[in-house]
Specification:
Elements lengths: L2 E6 L7 E10 L4 E6 L6 E6 L7 E4 L4 E6 L14 H9 L4 H10 L7 E6 L4 E5 L6 E2 L3 E5 L9 H16 L5 H7 L18 H6 L10 E11 L4 E12 L2 E13 L12
Antiparallel strand pairs: 1-2, 1-10, 2-11, 3-4, 4-5, 5-6, 6-7, 7-8, 8-9, 11-12, 12-13
């Protein structure tokens, strides 16, 4: 996952909205959004190489997501797969805070990451590049391949677009959020970060939706948690034809969540 927008307590009918794009090499084997045979309560796409996931939920309303922290100078080829962090949270019987404390104790085992874990009552963020876990307050937050709410152009763009959709829509359709994620705007060099990959690569990775012959956005996802207690999770997959994205299937699932506290306007 390389871009996540999270709207918390920002719409009267949807206490939680998550919009996310997963960027990955097209050659990496992946299973689409589905319930897992080995963990029937987990609903997520799956990385078939390391058996983890970039974004998932459970029938009880647990939610997890991860992005990489872009720093080519600090890559650790021996490190554990970061997608396993999401898988392990969804499978564990731990609160978000307790789980992140356990992750922090082994943070050196992973190359840089941003980890989002929570449920419909609380969403937490932690990065092993920053230290300290944060319970996210109400508002619209964005994460790409740096820290929480780092103002990269793509992060600011998806936050702005999601805010406009929320302000202008009493009822939000999953497809309207998925359409926001198909933004291929390339931003000028002077607005881009310098993460050590070179100007050409920074430019190629700058859009909300990334396209290149070998690497790009493999899937767009939206999670809508309704005030009524229903969770809707949709995933639209993409392949690539010589750098041109080709939309595949869109899969949607609904979960009637058990009664639990709603997200409040809270902070750390």
């Amino acid at each position: 996952m390389c871009l996540i927008a999270i709207a918390i307590a920002s719409h009267p009918e949807y206490p939680l909205i998550i919009a996310a794009n997963r960027d990955e090499f097209y050659s990496r084997p992946t299973a689409p959004l589905a319930y897992w045979e080995d963990h029937p309560d987990i609903l997520a796409g799956r990385d078939l190489e390391s058996r983890g996931t970039w974004l998932g939920v459970t029938r009880s309303g647990k939610i997890g997501a991860v992005t990489n922290f872009r720093d080519p100078a600090a890559l650790t080829p021996w490190g554990k797969s970061r997608g396993q962090l999401v898988r392990d949270y969804l499978a564990a019987d731990q609160s978000p805070g307790d789980y992140l404390a356990a992750v922090e104790a082994q943070k050196a085992s992973y190359t840089g990451f941003n980890l989002v874990v929570g449920n419909t009552g609380e969403i937490w963020w932690y990065s092993n590049k920053n230290g300290g876990k944060i319970r996210l307050p109400a508002g619209i937050h964005g994460i790409s391949n740096h820290l929480l709410n780092t103002p990269w152009p793509k992060v600011e763009a998806i936050r702005r677009k999601l805010h406009a959709l929320i302000q202008g829509s009493r009822a939000i359709a999953p497809y309207s959020v998925l359409d926001l994620l198909f933004d291929r705007t390339v931003y000028p060099d002077h607005n881009l970060p310098d993460t050590g990959v070179g100007p050409e690569c920074e430019r190629r990775l700058s859009p909300v939706f990334v396209s290149s012959p070998n690497y790009g956005t493999r899937s767009s996802s939206v999670i809508l948690v309704e005030a009524s207690g229903r969770l809707v999770f949709c995933e639209r997959t993409f392949s690539n034809d010589r750098g041109i994205p080709v939309a595949g299937n869109t899969r949607c699932f609904e979960i009637e969540l058990p009664e639990q506290p709603g997200i409040q306007n809270v902070g750390e």
